[in-house]
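Protein folding task:
====================
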Amino acid sequence: MIDNLARDLQILWKADSLIGKIWLDVLARRFGLYAVAALIAVFGLGMANVAGFYALQQAWGPVWAAAIVAGVDFILAIVVLLFGRNAAPGPEIEFAFDVRKMAIASLQTDVQDLKRAADSLGQEIRRTTDTVAGFIHHPLDAATEKLLVPLALSIVRSLRAKKD
C-alpha cells in the first residue's frame, strides 16, 4: 500500500517534470524567435534611419533603396513575431497530462485504501481497549463472557457429537 503510494507520487512527479520541461522548451523557442525578430527590427530601424537621412540629403535617389530594405526588414520581423506567438507545445503535452491525471487518480485510490486501513486499525485498537477496560472493571463478567461461555458451548457440542 505504501509502495503504491510512493510509486504513484514518483509518477506524478515525473509527469509534472515532463510538463514543465515541455513548457520551458516552448518558452525558449518563443524567446529565441522574439530575439531574432527584435534583431531584425533593429536592423530595419537602422535602415529606416539611414533612409530618413538620405531622404533629407537628396530628394529621390538611394533613399528609396534604403526605405525598401527597411520595409522588408519590418515585414520579416512581423512574420517572425507571428511564428513566435503561435509556437505551442506538441502532442506530447497531452500524453503528459494524461499520465498526470492517471497518477493523481491512483494516488487518490491509494490514499483512500490507506485511510480505510488506518480506520480499521483504529477500530481494532478501540475494541481491544474496550475489552481490556471491561476486563479490568468487571473481571468476572469478562472471564465468563470470553472464557466460560465458549468453554461451555464447546463441552455441549462435544457431548452432542459423542451422543450421535
Remarks:
- The mean pLDDT is 80.
